Amino acid sequence: MVAIIVVIPLTISEQAAAAVATQPSQIETTPPPRKAIIIAEMKAAGESNTDADFVELYNPNDVPVDMTGWLLQYRTASTTPDKAWVDKSSTGKDQDTKARLGCGVQCQVVIAAKARFVIASPSANLPRADFVPATNLGFASTGGQIRLVSVDVVHGTTLQEDLLGYGKVSTTGLATATAEGTPAPMHSLSGSLKRTIDQSNELIDTNDNVKDFELSLVATPGMADMYIPPVTSGDQINTEVPEPTMSAEAVGILREAIAINELLPDPVAPYVDAEDEFIELYNKSDEVVAMGGLIITVGASKTNTYTISSNINLEPHEYYAVYAKESGLTLTNSGTNITLAAHDGTVLQSVTYLVAKPGQSWALADNGQWQWTLSPTPGGANTITLAPAVVPSLIKSVSKKTTTAKAPKPPKAAAKPKVPKQPKPKKAKQTTKNTLTTPEAKAKQDATVWVAGGMAMVTSGYLAYDYRASVRRLWDWARPSN
User: Fold this and answer.
1) In contact, 362 and 263? CB cutoff 8 Å
2) Which CATH superfamily is domain 3-228 in?
3) pTM of the predicted model, to two decimals?
4) Tens-place pLDDT, residues 231-276
5) CATH top class, domain 248-373
6) C-alpha neighbours within 13 Å on the C-beta side of residue 368
7) 478: helix, coil or strand?
8) Is the dihedral of CA 92, 98, 103, 106 positive or negative?
9) Please, are residues 77 and 143 in contact by the beta-carbon 8 Å criterion?
10) Can you give the residue ranges of every domain in the chain?
11) Please, are residues 280 and 322 in contact by the beta-carbon 8 Å criterion?
C-alpha cells in the first residue's frame, strides 16, 4: 500500500491551509526533524502521449508522513529565474502549483514508511497513480523546475522538501534556485529520470540533481528499483544490463491475456493510410495488464516495428487501438503478417491477412474465425457486417427484365365525319412490259432460242444412241405380233 488515506477531524480548515500556502516568504530552509520526502522518479512527456507526466515521491523515514495540503509546483525553464514561486495568481487561479494534496474536509493523505507515492496527470491514465489533480501537470519536454512543498497548518509554515531541475535550466547568478546543484539531463520520450540507488538499495540524495538522477529507458511509476553492479571483464568495464528473458509461465499468462483483435489495412476517404490504419489489441483477462515493452511487427522486416509505451496499461476486457499516426506502422493492401511479441522477442501471437478490402477491417468474430467486416470498431467490441454476395448472371437477367413503365395513351379524338372519296382515274395498262421494241433485243432473243433448240436435239440424239438396245426391246415388246 503506497498511500494511506485516513478520515479524521481536522482542527484547521482547508481555507486556512491554502492561505498559509500562498505566502512564499514563509518558506523555511531549516530541515525538519524527519528526513525530507524526496522526488524518486519523474517523467515529462510520453512517446505517444505528450501529457503522460508523473512524479513519484519516496518516504525514506521509518514512520508514515502526513502530506495533507502539500503542494507540487512547477515552472518552465524560461520562467524569470529571480521570480519567487507563486502558489496562486492575483485572481486566485493556480499558478506554479500543479497539485494540492487533499481528499476532502475530514481526511488525510499519508505516505507509508519506505513507500512511494505517484502524482500523475489525468491524461496519463496510470492505474498506479495515488493522486490525480484536476488538470494535467504540463511538464515541458525541454526542461523545467519541479519542487515539493510541505505545509504545516498547525504552525502556519511551509517548507521546500525537494527540488529537481532538468533539461535546459540556467543556475548561474540567480537569487532563486532552479535546481539542486547542476540540473539533471532530459530523458527520452519512452523513458524517465530516476534517482540513483546505492548498494543497499537506498535512494541517493546529495543535493546535486545531475549526480542524484540518471536516465532510464523504461518508466516504472510506483515500483521499486534494484541496484545493479557493473560487471568487469579484464581491463574493460561492461555496464550493459542483459535483456531479461521471460519465463514460460509469464509468456503463457501474456498469451492468455492479450490478443490481436482487429486490423484496418485500407481505410477509405476521408480517412488516410498514414494516420488511420490501426492494429487493435484486447485484454481478455480479468486483471490489469502492463503493455509497456510489447513489440508489434508488420511483415518480415525488423524495421517496421513499434514498441508500446511503458505507461500503457489495459484494464480487464479493455481494447487498445494502435494507430499508424502514433506507431508509424504500415499495413500493405496486398496482405502481410502481424506479430505481437514480448519485450525479449518471444512471439505471443501472429495474424495474417490477404488482399485488403477497401474500408473493411480484418476482425476476429465470436466463433474464433477471422472475417472482413464493413463495420470497423477501433477501441470496442467487433461487429461483423458482411458485404452482400454479388452474382453477375442474376444481375444481368434482372436488368433485362427491368423496364420503364409506359405512359398511358392519350384518349382518342372524336371521329371526324366521313366524306365520300372521289374515284381515282384508272391508269392505262402497260401492254408493252415484256415486248421487245428494238431490233438488237429481238436478234438476241432469236439467237437464244436457236442455241437452246440445238442443245436439246444433241441431247436427245445422245440419249437415243446410248439407250438404243433398251429402246429396241421396248419397241419389240410393244409391236403387235403377226
Assistant:
1) yes
2) Lamin Tail domain (2.60.40.1260)
3) 0.45
4) 544 445 444 544 556 667 777 888 899 999 999 999 999 999 999 9
5) mainly beta
6) 0
7) helix
8) negative
9) yes
10) 3-228, 248-373
11) yes
